[in-house]
Design a protein that fits this description.
The protein is an all-beta fold. The chain has a single domain, classed as Immunoglobulin-like (Sandwich), CATH 2.60.40.10. The chain is about 0% helix and about 45% strand. The chain has no helices and 8 strands. Strands 1-2-6-5 form a 4-stranded antiparallel beta sheet, with no helix packed on it. Strands 4-3-7-8 form a 4-stranded antiparallel beta sheet, with no helix packed on it. The protein is elongated. The mean pLDDT is about 95. Keywords: Cytoplasm, Disulfide bond, Phosphoprotein. This is OBSCN protein. It comes from Formicarius rufipectus. It is found in: Cytoplasm. InterPro entries: Ig-like_dom (IPR007110), Ig-like_dom_sf (IPR036179), Ig-like_fold (IPR013783), Ig_I-set (IPR013098), Obscurin/Obscurin-like_Reg (IPR052385).
Length: about 90
């Protein structure tokens, strides 16, 4: 069983104008196969034409494309017992 990854670089608040992309990033203490999940409010996000979820080593990023007023709210990143919110 692998040790749990911790969040070492937390999410930062992002402001974007309607129609722009908003990018959120955080970094983990180690690469992990543990499930990492992004949320907008309480809604889990999937990678699709509106959201791009990327993992590059220990860096996890979320791109919300062409944001609208409906995208306003808290973004959370969860891995294991750790959560970061912006």
């Amino acid at each position: 069983k692998e040790p749990a990854a911790a969040i070492v670089e937390t999410l930062k608040d992002v402001s974007a104008h309607e129609g722009e992309d908003a990018v959120f990033e955080c970094r983990l203490s180690r690469e992990t196969t543990q499930d990492a999940q992004w949320f907008l409010g309480d809604v889990p996000l999937q990678s699709n034409e509106m959201n791009e979820i990327r993992v590059q080593g220990t860096r996890h990023s979320l791109v919300l494309r062409k944001v609208t007023l409906e995208d306003c709210g808290s973004i959370s990143f969860k891995v294991g017992q750790h959560t970061s919110t912006a």
